[in-house]
Design brief:
Order of helices and strands: EEEEEEEEEEEEEE
Number of helices: 0
Number of strands: 14
Shape: globular
Length: about 170
């Protein structure tokens, strides 16, 4: 993560360059938060989400317009989002928040026309995980999220896995 290993020491915002694959040229430069460390596009290619570890936010890019989402440019989550996964059926984004030892479950649903729904960007739950959640995986039946925690609350244990229910948002 370079300087973003200690995100409190970084003050400059990041940026994303949109590259046109047919010409290999930059068509847009999009502003991001502090320490962008991971990006994720939905399977339908409608939205791209960038985890900004230093800002505690997710930047939302409307991939169809090649621009920051006008209605919901950022979503505030727990400190240090570093990874995300997406539950297609429920249109949920789940972030691993490394610096707050939590995950955030976010409604990112779209209407039939590809526009943000009225509930888009709403954090449905922030759930405690183990120490330093670094990656996670949403089961595609929508039942659970498996969270890989880099540390553990017990000294000498190198890591753990938290299992979080997507029906009641509890470990």
């Amino acid at each position: 993560w370079g300087d973003c290993a200690n995100p409190s020491s970084v003050t400059a915002n990041g940026e994303a360059d949109a590259i046109e694959t047919t010409t290999n040229t930059i068509s847009a430069t999009l502003p991001l938060g502090v320490c962008p460390v991971y990006g994720f596009m939905t399977p339908d290619a409608q939205r791209t989400f960038i985890m900004n570890r230093g800002s505690g936010t997710v930047t939302v890019i409307n991939s169809q317009l090649n621009a920051i989402d006008a209605a919901h440019p950022t979503i505030a989550v727990g400190a240090g989002p570093v990874f995300a996964d997406y539950y297609t059926q429920g249109q949920l984004l789940v972030t691993a928040n490394y610096d707050s030892n939590t995950i955030s479950i976010i409604d990112v649903s779209l209407d039939p026309y590809g526009n943000d729904s009225t509930t888009f960007g709403r954090v449905l739950a922030t759930v405690p995980a183990g120490l330093h959640p670094v990656e996670l995986s949403v089961l595609q039946d929508g039942s659970r999220v498996y969270v890989a925690n880099q540390g553990d609350r017990t000294a000498g244990t190198p890591g753990s896995v938290s299992v979080v229910s997507l029906t009641n948002y509890k470990v």
